[in-house]
Amino acid sequence: MNEFKFVELIRPYRSLFAGTILVNITFSLSGLVLPYMLKIAIDRILPNADYELFTILCACMLIVYGIRCIMRYISGYMGTYTTIRMLLDMRNRIFRHLQSLSLRFYEEYRTGKLISNVISDVSLLQQLANLCISMTEQIFTAATIAFLLFFISPQLALLVICLLPLHILNFAHFKKILRQDALSLQERMSEISATLSENINGIRIVKSFARERSACRQFFETMRPTMDLHLRMNHNNCLCWAVFDVIAVLTYLMVIGYSISLVKSGQITLGDFAAFYSYVGVLMGPINALSGSAVIISQGLAGATRIGRLLSVIPEIREDETPVVAEHLKGHIIFDHVDFQYKDTPVLKDFSLEIEPGQKVAFVGPSGCGKSTASNLVLRFYDVCGGSLTVDGIDVRRYSLESYHNNIGVVLQEPFLFSGSIRDNIAYAKKDATFAEVERAARLANVASFVERLPKKYDTIIGENGASLSGGQKQRLAIARAILKDPAILILDEATSALDTVSEVLVQQALDTVMSGRTTIIIAHRLSTIRNADKIVVMNAGQIMQCGTHDELMETDGMYKELYTTQLKNSGAGPS
Questions:
Q1: How far apart are CA 178 and CA 297, in angstroms?
Q2: Chain-wide mean pLDDT for the chain?
Q3: Is the whole-model pTM more than 0.85?
């Protein structure tokens, strides 16, 4: 199965591999001329002191090895180009595949393991591809040598050929042992990568709780088993080599012993023996390489298995065969008896709601009630499990993903920023955004107030996920990004949760302006921020408990009035 996955992964590069192998074979075959020339020198030149033949022999050698030097350069270049091209394309293919997978996949798969797939496993695959090029050429060379051995002495050739199965059995035995260890090692290394990534991302928490020692101990405990696996693999690899050496020495001794009687009886000459012995030495090269490559083959096949396993994950969110291009959506959203569950846990049950174009609709309720899930369904981060979700009368599953998402702006509860400049992060929402547009969005989101105080202003590099910014500043940048996009549908998932009181007022004013005329879904815990919503949807356990305006809901005893009153008491404000 591992071999099949490896073959499938390298299939697109078969022409490059074939060309590289052909050049390598030409290079290797040119090296087989020397032993036969040694035979000529021993049998004809040395006994007769034939300098004329010696001169011809030297000229032939120079020509052959001149060609060999050229072939060495071409084979080296083609081999490197082929494997590096495969490395680049494979990582690009995996990255594209990762982009196509749904959020559900990322919730179940650790980030560090994915990084290990893209970096470590593909590197192992490259090593195996290099080895395959080398081994294919060496197998062809070995077959050619076997023919030459029979040409020189069929009796000696049969003796050598009879011993070859011992080498094959030796390699097969240790390869089987090493394969499982190699797969276990790769899984361990991916876990280490995941732990490392998790620890670095959470370094502030680690330090704030003084858990550095604990983190170091946990990392060492994760690393320790890899040492045992490495040692065990090295032990088995050394045993494989040792067995090869024993069989090789046995082969040499048997060839010498049998050759004594053949030379004595005149069935072969001393030149034949010298050439035959040299060819046997050359033959041991590919066999030696095969024995020493057991670890590389096992690790490469383990990498191929893990890459194949990742690429075989079917994207949950898929485009329709004839997708509808969403050019200018109005934002008329209808949830029609929608059901959604995460694994076996129901999240939304018989959820029905209509949002008119341009309406501001707020989802409120306790944590885990399905507010964010409803917005994620609109974003089509997930697909409904039952019922339907339409936008402008068309099921969202029929829209092309790119055109559909181009009509939606979102500010998530935990804003994510890239490690570039402030300008780049705002302009991320629009490919051809001008600087004037970026400045306008920044001004509306109250970003300009702190950017203007920075030495490099909009060209300031903010670090990984905005490490140099405060939580409120990051949130405002995310809002500016959504404003620049100018979407038909705007989703605000706790968009003002990280802002201080002053910034919240300023940003809320900007949001009121940008929400005008477009469909807006607001997810909020602080109910004071949604009093002006056209419709407030009160949710609990995946169902709609109440629906209406702030004033309508406050006139009725129910969950909303209870939540609102409780928040007012906790904040120390009076009822309104």
A1: 9
A2: 80
A3: no
